[in-house]
Amino acid sequence: MSIKAPAEVLKEVWGYDTFRPLQRPIIDSVLSGRDTLALLPTGGGKSICYQVPALCLPGLTIVVSPLIALMQDQVQQLEQRNVPAKALHSGLSRKEIEQILQQCVDGEVKLLYLSPERLKTDLFLGHLPYLQISLLAVDEAHCISQWGHEFRPSYREIADVRPYLKKCPLLAVTATATPPVAEDIIGQLAMIDPQEFKGSFHRDNLKYIVIEDSYEMDRLRHVVNGIKGSQIIYTQSRFRTAEIARHLKQRGIQALFYHAGLSARERAERQRKWIQGEVQIMVATNAFGMGVDKADVRGVIHMDMPISPEAYYQEAGRGGRDGKPAFAVLIYDQQSIGNMEDRLNQMYPSLDFCKNVMRAIFKWSRVAVGAGQYASLDFDLVKFSNNHDWKPISVFHALRQLELSGWIQRSEGLAVPSRFRIKASREELYRLQLADKQFDVFIKTLLRSYEGVFIDYVRIRERDMARQLEISPEQVKAYLQRLHQKEYVVYLPAKSGEQITLLQSRPPTGDIYIDHKAIRKNKKRAQRRWQAMKGYIGAEGCRTRTLLKYFGESLKEDCGACDICLGSQLKVFKDAEERDSIVAALQEWLSNEKSISIRKWIYKYPVVYKKRLLHLLSELETSGELRVNSSLEIEKSDGK
């Protein structure tokens, strides 16, 4: 039973007068108690579809989300709107998790975000009977389907929790579900007579452009300078993000780079600068974008080939969420197609290699045979790979297969705050204070500032301690490290890196079972998605129509805005007047300059003119009006 009207909540909390298309029908379906599947495109306002019902209904809304960063972003945004929201993740201590769950039991929290893995923990299940849950929302629901492009085995376990939730409705939301994926979501979540809502994947303000150019950096500068406003440039490697950002900055274009290997503080600061418009261009891996609330992105540029239409649509769809014109540009050359096909093969290493990696992880973890299930360990991919003389990229993909096979869970780019607990007794601490005066004030401040430190780990903020003691944070860390060395405390400094959780115990024989048939099926699906992506790149008709067809949607007419609709495939000009004006401009240039490079000449015109210009140049060279020298520069022909 709704206790508040959706429109009232929308206005009071978000300040909006009206809902976006389909949001209100989806919310009404949820409030009526029905299981609901919502397929909304990127930027369609999926989070509102469960956040508004959460505030309309009594009790608690559970939101299952795949990414820690996404959970934290949404919780932060809700807290800024005075909505009580919390997230459970592996960066919290057991005591902190218990406190949050107790707050949920006491009715102090309206939205609780957590990963699918945490649904099955004893700590959560122990509190579950005492929680008044009104709604279970599954974000990024395509992760539950093996047909989906981001399959997560742990999503399959969500349905196991439903019997504990009585008549609580389930809402599944996603932006990138093909018809087979949507059908699989319903089955895997055991949804009962669900009401389905599918928003159009067509974004008429988003202009799709594909450019083949072997001089990708030159073309990138040309594109970036032609788009006015905030832009995201996507690339697949962390190294390339820094490389591209540096290239742009050296040419007077301010840009930042972003990837999961940066510290949490660096990522947050760079994201803030970009969102607030201090820097207009962000060069990033796909670790950037989810949960980022910025509507006025005018361009999303891909410098590496996306592996599937789903991945491309989700990332490109971050442009133009304000409804104003935006560009989705993909720059590639033939080598990048070959690179992606090599990468696709690398993504599925041999079963023997995957098993050897898992055995090495068990050895690395030092857990006993028959033990280790749910143990978490810090994991340095490069160090681990070097220790075994393996290529890091091969190990990375083996970890992915081990995760899909249910052996491990990875948390990449996880930020864990500093924690400590006091190991010594109060009497031992007192003797230390008497013997060493430099620790006296420090220990007194510790005990005064943090409770429960003799029982469990407590999060410590070194900057807060530094302000109280009027010393630097580095000095606070030094004090804690010395106490740690003396074994008076256990100090765990903040870290940002990867963790691995073992989902199964170490087998006695070292035998690692992996379902090779499932891996073969997944590889075939990935190859089909890649062929569909190549079909989009090589499309001869409207790109928007090609993309929509993949998602099971049709468009009555060509979009009129993509590069093909604007004539990128044309080899001749539509009228002689336009052709003659371009020839005249070129001849005028050559009357003042000795030559012009073909590239520089082509970049003077819109990208869709490339084929027409090259064909025109061929005609002019054949007729003897111009010539192209060995440096690929256009010159006057002899005697002209």
Kindly describe this structure.
The chain is α/β, with parallel strands linked by helices. It has five domains: 6-198, 3-Layer(aba) Sandwich (Rossmann fold); 206-342 and 539-550, P-loop containing nucleotide triphosphate hydrolases (Rossmann fold, 3-Layer(aba) Sandwich), CATH 3.40.50.300; 347-416 and 497-524, Arc Repressor Mutant, subunit A; 419-493, Arc Repressor Mutant, subunit A (Orthogonal Bundle), CATH 1.10.10; 576-636. Helix content is 43%, strand content 17%. It has 25 helices and 22 strands. The strands form five sheets. The protein has a seven-stranded parallel sheet, with helices on both faces. A six-stranded parallel sheet has the order 8-13-12-9-11-10, sandwiched between helices. Helix 19 packs across helix 20. The longest helix has 22 residues, at 516-537. The mean pLDDT is 88.
Spell out the blueprint of helices and strands:
Elements: H1 6-14, H2 23-31, E1 36-39, H3 48-56, E2 60-64, H4 68-80, E3 85-88, H5 94-105, E4 111-114, H6 122-127, E5 133-138, H7 158-161, E6 170-174, H8 179-188, E7 195-198, E8 206-212, H9 216-226, E9 230-234, H10 238-250, E10 255-258, H11 264-275, E11 281-284, E12 297-302, H12 309-316, E13 326-332, H13 334-346, H14 351-365, E14 376-379, H15 381-387, H16 392-404, E15 408-416, E16 419-422, H17 426-435, H18 437-449, E17 458-459, H19 462-469, H20 473-485, E18 489-492, E19 495-502, H21 516-537, H22 543-550, H23 576-592, E20 595-597, H24 598-602, H25 610-622, E21 626-628, E22 633-636
Parallel strand pairs: 1-6, 1-7, 2-4, 2-5, 3-4, 5-6, 8-13, 9-11, 9-12, 10-11, 12-13
Antiparallel strand pairs: 14-19, 15-19, 16-17, 16-18, 20-22, 21-22
Helix pairs in contact: 2-3, 14-16, 17-18, 19-20, 21-22
